[in-house]
Amino acid sequence: MTIQTERLLLRPWKSSDAAALFAFASDPDIGPPAGWPAHKSVEESRAVIETVLSGKEAYAVCQRETGELLGAIELKLCGHSDLAQTDSECELGFWIGKPFWGQGLIPEAAKALLRRAFTELSMEKVWCAYYDGNEKSKRAQEKIGFRFHHTSENVPVPLLGETRKGHVNCMTKEDWMEQRSGEHDRT
């Protein structure tokens, strides 16, 4: 499945994305704030594509005009998320390469994926979370329209062998519908 927005193309990951993924995922400002270690090789990035980024709703975020890889976004379905407890819930996860920070690209991609979640996948609730101190993720989630749900202390971060404070947000189908009607009222 491929999803297009004004500036973006969301498409399944390919093994041939490994070098482009490594270029961003090797940056210590990308993975560690999100709870995963910086990649150490193109081979590691290829393995991540084949395992972590192989979910049914995992997408490479690419520039629509050129196809250039910019980041990743995924709806983690129940069974692949610590937050989603039923088949009508999922968790949104994302990151974007540093050269593309602050351009509103993740909110644009997320809004397209949320439309898919609520209209095509019959989700009733989408969760999204960030670790304490990850201000970029916090701001992106606010721009997307997520609402604060709770904070948890001592959340395990197994890939980094530590615990952190985690902040959990959510969006219900009703929240999403209200936001969409509000957007139409302003146009």
**Strand arrangement, major sheet:** 1-2-3-4-5-6-8-7
Find the CATH superfamily.
Gcn5-related N-acetyltransferase (GNAT)
Encode the helix/strand succession as letters.
EEHHHEEEHEHEEH
Total helices: the number is: 6
Rg result: 16 Å
Major sheet? 8 strands, mixed
Text of the CATH class: Alpha Beta
Write the layout of secondary structure elements.
Elements lengths: L2 E2 L3 E4 L6 H8 L5 H4 L7 H9 L7 E6 L5 E9 L11 E8 L8 H16 L4 E7 L3 H10 L2 E11 L4 E11 H14 L1
Parallel strand pairs: 5-6
Antiparallel strand pairs: 1-2, 2-3, 3-4, 4-5, 6-8, 7-8
Give an overview of the whole structure.
The chain has 187 residues and is α+β, with helices and mostly antiparallel strands. The chain has one domain: Aminopeptidase. The chain is built from 6 helices and 8 strands. It has helices at 18-25, 31-34, 42-50, 105-120, 135-144, 173-186; strands at residues 3-4, 8-11, 58-63, 69-77, 89-96, 125-131, 147-157, 162-172. It has an 8-stranded mixed sheet with strand order 1-2-3-4-5-6-8-7, with helices on both faces. A hairpin with a 3-residue loop joins strand 1 (3-4) and strand 2 (8-11). Helix 1 packs across helix 3 (42-50). The longest helix is centred in the middle third of the chain and has 16 residues, at 105-120.
